[in-house]
Amino acid sequence: MNADKLKEKKMAQKTKLKHADITEKILHVFFKKVYHQLGYGFLEKVYENAMALELRQMGLKVEQQAPINVYYGNAIVGVYYADLVVQDAVLVELKAAKTIDPAHEAQLLNYLRATPYEVGLLLNFGPKASFKRLSFDNHRKKTKTWQPKSTNSI
Questions:
Q1: What was the pLDDT predicted at 80?
Q2: What does each C-alpha distance from 154 to 55, 92, 115, 144 come to in angstroms?
Q3: Residue 94 Cα distances to 41, 64, 72, 122, 132, angstroms
Q4: What pTM was estimated for this model as a whole?
Q5: Model confidence at 101, in pLDDT bands (50, 70, 90)?
Q6: For 50, phi and psi rounded to 5 degrees?
Q7: What is the pLDDT of the chain when averaged over all its residues?
Q8: Domains, the chain, ranges and CATH?
């Protein structure tokens, strides 16, 4: 068993991570299926399609390139397209880089901040498969930038 996967499994058992059942399935598909078969060197879209195919075959609901409006007050100031949203619960960002860069982690954290999703996986199809799991509970988010502000608010 991959050391990262083993570490994730032990952490999930110890602390009961939010959506651990879903993230475990996603990581299984990432390490044991898609990366094992395709390896390193394709564009992100190839990995996205393969991940979606495998996750759907497991019976999971998967939305590719899910549009997410980002609001500033009542105005839409941007649209983010999530690579994958699994079971309406886990946001998955895919990379095909040499390593996971801190900028990739910051990007995923901002996506979590700007959406109602609380758990995100950053999957890197680099020379060595790697991942990061981030979470951002909705009650800790200062603003709900995925929805327009109420007209009653000041």
A1: 85
A2: 43, 34, 22, 15
A3: 13, 11, 26, 6, 11
A4: 0.82
A5: very high
A6: -65, -45
A7: 88
A8: 3-140 (3.40.1350)
Say what the pLDDT of residue 154 is.
39
Per-residue CA distances from 63 to 18, 34, 98, 149 (Å): 20, 17, 26, 26
CA of 60: how far to CAs of 14, 51, 64, 88, 141, in Å? 25, 11, 13, 10, 27
The sign of the dihedral angle between the CA atoms of 101, 106, 108, 111 is negative
Length of the chain: 154
pLDDT single digits (tens) 47-87: 999 999 999 999 999 999 998 887 787 888 888 899 999 99
Instruction: Specify which residues 75 forms β-bridges with.
Output: 72
- pLDDT at site 4: 72
Output the six-digit token pair for 84: 């994958």
SS3 content of the chain, % helix, strand, coil (to 5): 40, 30, 30
Contact 12, 50 (CB under 8 A): no
